[in-house]
Amino acid sequence: WVTRRLMGKVGIPLVTTNRINMPEVAERILAEGHADMVSMARPFLADAEILSKARQGKVHAINTCIACNQACLDHTFKQIPATCLVNPRACRETELVIRPASAKKKIAVVGAGPAGLACATTAAERGHEVHLYEASDRIGGQFNMAKRIPGKEEFNETLRYFDHRLRETGVHLHLDTFATAEMLRAGGFDEVVLATGVKPRTPDIPGIDHPKVLSYIDVLWHDKPVGQKVAIIGAGGIGFDVAEFLTHGQRHPSLDVQAFAEEWGVDLSYRHRGGLTEPHPEPSPREVWLMQRSPGKPGKRLGKTTGWIHRLSLRHKNVHMMGGVKYLRIDDDGLLIEHQGEQK
After folding, report:
1. 87: how many CB neighbours lie within 10 A of its CB?
2. Residues 117 and 229 in one domain
3. Do residue 222 and residue 146 come from a single domain?
4. CB 63, CB 117: distance < 8 Å
5. Among 101, 131, 228, 251, who pairs with 126 as Cys (CB 3.0-4.6 Å)?
6. Within this chain, do residues 313 and 220 fall inside the same structural domain, yes or no?
């Protein structure tokens, strides 16, 4: 947007950057005359072979940067070596060396979430016979919930990448298959890898089994109906994600340029100084309270480079964020809490 306005107005080449994470995006920017060059950084951590794959017409094989910042920029600000959430070999290529196996084994991997997918495809790449078991009807595990969060839609690109990797490496994929000990024993496997992920922790609150109570899995996976007034217990990364999901309607700013500009006060007409104007976010369809037991500001432990965005986004939606909350009980009237010495 900025370089497009400057094209032809200055006498030096213009370089544009940020969220240019796939070759076709870069190509479109150049073809439409929005810049003379493009700059890409994080995409090379996600996949060092991004350009060679593009040159060979293997775009489907690119491991796409999902802009999580968790292992690159967040690590940098902590002064620890950078790497990549979707490519743990980034910056460790001489330590995590993938070599052909000296002896072929028959391996079972249980769970087709990100860890199971990475394990299965790497083992198969090394020459092992790998069987990947998944109880649900799709690969991806909790990434299938994460990709529904506004701003995290690109998590689906990781699943697209692993879908290709499974076929490329010859992994035997068994969907809708709940692996049992008897099945694994009968399969004659040399090794079994458990990558079944985690289960949500159920807090010890009287009335936690009330019909009003839903887990994040109920909301994001099973699409259980959610009311107009919602209390979210827990203000970590999942709590913030659920709040984002519940406070956005069908129009996701991350997928709609005009909606993004309105939500963040970007003046695409450039009539206001600096291209900035008052934000006008779409009102939340619900009233949401985001709570945590620990004192202090909710979201304090989120990533350094993205946490402030999540907090500001929820403030735009008038989410009530509360720390130092004591949960007393859940009943027909809702959630009774104690906050700052007062019961609510």
Report:
1. 22
2. no
3. no
4. no
5. 101
6. yes
**Would you say 290 and 300 are in contact if contact means Cβ atoms under 8 Å apart?**
no
Give me the phi and psi of 158, to 5 degrees please. -65, -40
Per-residue pLDDT tens digits for 279-304:
999 999 999 999 999 999 999 999 99
For the chain, the first-to-last Cα distance in angstroms comes to: 47
Type and span of the H or E element at 168? helix 155-169
Classify residue 182: in a domain, yes or no. Answer: yes
Q: 162-168 contacts: CB < 8 A, separation 24 or more?
A: 162/114, 162/117, 162/118, 162/121, 163/139, 164/60, 164/61, 165/61, 165/117, 165/121, 166/117, 166/120, 166/121, 166/132, 166/139, 168/61, 168/121
Decide if 86 is inside a domain.
Answer: no
- Whole-angstrom CA distances from 90 to 41, 87, 151, 174 are 12, 6, 24, 30
Q: Which domain holds residue 106?
A: 101-198
Q: What are phi and psi of 43, to 5 degrees?
A: -60, -25
- DSSP letter string, 194-216: E-----------TTTTSTT---H
Contact assessment for residue 48 and residue 42, using Cβ atoms and an 8 Å cutoff: no
Q: What is the pLDDT of residues 5-62, one digit of tens each?
A: 899 999 999 999 999 999 999 999 999 999 999 999 999 999 999 999 999 999 999 9
The residues, ordered by sequence, that sit 6+ positions from 191 with a Cβ below 8 Å of its Cβ are 105, 106, 107, 108
Closest to 15 measured CA to CA, from 36, 33, 34, 46: 36
Query: Is the overall model pTM greater than 0.85, yes or no?
Result: yes
**Residues 238, 143 share a domain:** no
Radius of gyration of the chain (CA): 23
The CATH number of residue 182's host domain is 3.40.50.720
Q: Are residues 221 and 190 in the same domain?
A: no
- Residue 233: its H or E element: strand 229-233
Report the SS3 class of residue 131.
Answer: strand
b/e sequence 246-259, b meaning 16+ C-beta within 10 Å: bbbeeebbbeeeeb
Give every strand in the sheet of 334-339, ordered side by side. 325-331, 334-339, 342-343
Half-sphere exposure of 119 (CA within 13 A, CB side): 20
The answer to whether position 189 is within a domain reads yes
Residues 335 and 222 in one domain: yes
Q: d(Cα 238, Cα 232) in Å, to the nearest integer?
A: 10
